[in-house]
Amino acid sequence: MERKILLTDCPDETGLIARVTGICSKYKLNIIKNTEFVANQQQRFFMRTVLEGDFCSGFLQEIREALPKEASIRLITTSRKKLVVMVTKEMHCIGDLLLKHYAQTMNFEISAVIGNYDNLRELTEKFGIPFHTVSHENLTREEHCREIMKVIDGYSPDYIVLAKYMRILTPEFINAYPNRIINIHHSFLPAFIGAKPYEQAYNRGVKIIGATAHFVTEHLDEGPIIDQDVIKVDHNFTASDMAEAGRDIERMVLDHALNYVLDDKVFIYGNKTVVFRN
Amino acid sequence: MERKILLTDCPDETGLIARVTGICSKYKLNIIKNTEFVANQQQRFFMRTVLEGDFCSGFLQEIREALPKEASIRLITTSRKKLVVMVTKEMHCIGDLLLKHYAQTMNFEISAVIGNYDNLRELTEKFGIPFHTVSHENLTREEHCREIMKVIDGYSPDYIVLAKYMRILTPEFINAYPNRIINIHHSFLPAFIGAKPYEQAYNRGVKIIGATAHFVTEHLDEGPIIDQDVIKVDHNFTASDMAEAGRDIERMVLDHALNYVLDDKVFIYGNKTVVFRN
Amino acid sequence: MERKILLTDCPDETGLIARVTGICSKYKLNIIKNTEFVANQQQRFFMRTVLEGDFCSGFLQEIREALPKEASIRLITTSRKKLVVMVTKEMHCIGDLLLKHYAQTMNFEISAVIGNYDNLRELTEKFGIPFHTVSHENLTREEHCREIMKVIDGYSPDYIVLAKYMRILTPEFINAYPNRIINIHHSFLPAFIGAKPYEQAYNRGVKIIGATAHFVTEHLDEGPIIDQDVIKVDHNFTASDMAEAGRDIERMVLDHALNYVLDDKVFIYGNKTVVFRN
Amino acid sequence: MERKILLTDCPDETGLIARVTGICSKYKLNIIKNTEFVANQQQRFFMRTVLEGDFCSGFLQEIREALPKEASIRLITTSRKKLVVMVTKEMHCIGDLLLKHYAQTMNFEISAVIGNYDNLRELTEKFGIPFHTVSHENLTREEHCREIMKVIDGYSPDYIVLAKYMRILTPEFINAYPNRIINIHHSFLPAFIGAKPYEQAYNRGVKIIGATAHFVTEHLDEGPIIDQDVIKVDHNFTASDMAEAGRDIERMVLDHALNYVLDDKVFIYGNKTVVFRN
């Protein structure tokens, strides 16, 4: 008995659920959980089906034949995903990820951490994880990104997590890992795009600050949003108090977003996501 | 073309989704939305299927035959539900319901309001809705409840909403409307069961207060919970400040719970609910 | 025995609290509550002092003499504030305000409602409040605003509340009521400035939507923020579902902001507010 | 120039703020922040005054003489507090505290960790902090608590933090550290007092779960509450899913409560707290 997840993403038409679940039934695969969504405007159908049973090779083939030929279909063996984490200087997000790696309470292991500074090496190595310093100094952005790519590619990670990596990536880098780079942005996007969002928030006098986890695309801070959350602030908060308060919400949002992504609960369409939270 | 909702509640076994959606497909009914849940501990299966198409009489029959014979199956025509609302003296919940009745933004109409005092008559009648005063004075609880039942039964409502009705109902009353009485309780149940929850909360020095919407059963404050929410308080709040702050959360929670119930998104099993929020 | 609120707003220097509270003590005024804040960057001091006792004329004079001469000092008799509410077509915010006027649970009465359409007249008049239709048709923006100002000025309100008034006001209008116009904006500002914020939010694929209450200045959607709040949404929400879900949060945020303003808990400085919530 | 915090806790009477701030002014101490609260029912006055300047010995003496003789007055030099943390087997709270100790972003250092099992030794020692295993096996509760007290007393900590320490403490232990033991309880107290709160929550079918940080008194789960928070759950959550989701809120609430306590923002009166969050 094995457990796998079937992810279906195709143009909508009638009878899709019946066809897929019918074939599951025929192959005596038990449906543990089935979640679906139709994006009406785009006429697109998304379904996540958790299956249990003995999978034979004919099953996936028959699913493919039953669905429109533009369908994207994946049958995923649930297993721990491999991450490479990129950092700059801040500790709260990577610290949290290292603890979770150590506790094995989430669905990932960290293969390596890459920093453009050296200050998080000590913490990372406490947990027995390799830390690579790839300094941006004296390099063009293109050269720097290529150096990082070399390190990443040595680990073949499933996802690359930007845990407060504070430099802009090149299109070449981004296109090398499509839909596989996850960033935590320190504002409630699309408010306060760009640098120093807490200073922007302080100057605007907002009463709430937030954080956003999103996939990285070539358009800075504009990739598909996976999760967001906020906390209340008031006039007592300086920009630096906001930054400190924001740390909690940043690591929480990154944590939730990773949970969804690593459990294969996220579909991307256009510049948006479908997130089957349950 | 009609839209109906098929609600399936039965012992779990393999192939249920395939069977139901297969029959929908056979009858050319388009599935607009399908949500399912299996309560593993109870081995019970729940599914809500929103269908569009031409419904013929054979459809429901075929569904019944395909499912275990203990299954509870309902095919519901979506339509505005009829409510009778019971009140005592507080205005915030009934006021909100009256506005929503008037605005027609929710899925209900209020057939009548029943109060054990007269003070909400004026407000109710502004909206052209009959108000019945059924005083509890000089009556036993049993007599009083029977008087109210007579009024209710004149309207044949789908649901009875206790919008801050502050008296205990008799088992006879409760059993006359099984799974059809919805109460808003002014605490985060199971904390502060019984009378004066805000005073209890003040005395305990809690930092959060809440509200709970639940179905009414014979066990006071212990029926299946539909929705709950909270707000933060602090040492500045007296018991009466808490009560005032609680009003907002009470009407919000009642509003959300009604939305779920009236859209046929709620299943009851044992003393719990399945709420398909989406 | 009377209760008054002393509001102090002046350049910061040492000894301000001692001076003010010392004079209160000398005049045998009991301090019920004292809240202060120093905006360090601006070196500005704000204090709200709730006093009880017999107020004689010398008191305020002595306070003035004890503080820097640029100080803005107000001694306010707590009383119900008078509002004129402006609306367009949406009912949820004005409905809520009308109920609160009727229930007398908040610190205001509504003197009149002004709409550029007629559809909210019936609801307003149920509560015995005059409704003025001032259509914008066939008028320039300047002419239309002047017509509204004439109606407003007939009531001498303390504040003007834009309860989903959907047209832009002229600088002349705004400058006629400085720091006295409160707007509820249907987004989490500064995200989604301008028209159709829910459509913008839908298109961006955000996972949270919000509302913002702010004072109105000449710069559209950029006045000092009084309060903000949010609710979670997901891929199931269309733009119109978001708008509907947003209604709850809009009226809550407006309600909270009004509470703060009408209880004289809000100071404005630069483009920001100090809100003494307690 | 030094910064100190003056904490005043005394029976309420008129003129207290004026007296205290007047003496501060006389001694040329600048008030950076002043927060006060009167518990009307108990007629008790609480004030926290952050002062900057040169403190001479006469100052505190003069404050004492100016206040009722039952007053509790403390003048605190702000400095990093020393904690001993007690654990059983769960890692999320202690992991978070260890990271914060390492990052030095909060106002504490961890002197030692004491566990009744050995499994958190490895993690603790990664951070260079001594770990003491004090097994409860073959000991009475009294003997076990005394063993722990011996270890604690070797460190003279300011506070003892129960970071998921799952055993009941003796009155002797509790009375040895009055108002200095902080516990994180895995439910929204007073709901689900006692063992297995997540199982209780699951069985009750609640839609929200929470956590509570409180001072420990002889009455189990009934000490003064410092902070509470909640997250939403639904029918999809098993008891163990709730426990997992609860971890996030547990460490957040403990973190916030510690922040308040270590910044000397918390007063205890009766079985309640005053928490000056700002």
Would you give an account of this structure?
Four copies of one chain form a homotetramer. By secondary structure, chain A is of the alpha/beta class. Chain A has two domains: 76 residues, 2-Layer Sandwich (Alpha-Beta Plaits), CATH 3.30.70.260; 195 residues, Rossmann fold. Helix content of chain A is 32%, strand content 31%. Chain A contains eight helices and 13 strands. In chain A, the strands form three sheets. Chain A has a seven-stranded mixed β-sheet with strand order 7-6-5-8-9-10-11, with helices on both faces. In chain A, helix 1 packs antiparallel against helix 2 and helix 3 packs parallel to helix 8. Chain A is globular and about 60 Å long. The two termini of chain A are 23 Å apart. The interface between B and C is medium-sized, with 19 and 19 residues.
Question: Keyphrases for this structure?
Answer:
4-stranded antiparallel β-sheet; 8 helices; alpha/beta; 31% strand; 13 strands; Alpha-Beta Plaits; Rossmann fold; homotetramer; 278 residues; 32% helix; 7-stranded mixed β-sheet
SSE topology:
The structure is a homotetramer of 278-residue chains.
Chain A: E1 2-11, H1 16-26, E2 30-39, E3 44-53, H2 57-66, E4 72-77, E5 81-87, H3 92-103, E6 108-115, H4 121-126, E7 131-133, H5 141-153, E8 159-162, H6 171-176, E9 181-185, H7 197-204, E10 208-215, E11 225-232, H8 239-262, E12 266-269, E13 272-275
Parallel strand pairs in A: 5-6, 5-8, 6-7, 8-9
Antiparallel strand pairs in A: 1-3, 1-4, 2-3, 9-10, 10-11, 12-13
Helix pairs in contact in A: 1-2, 3-8, 7-8
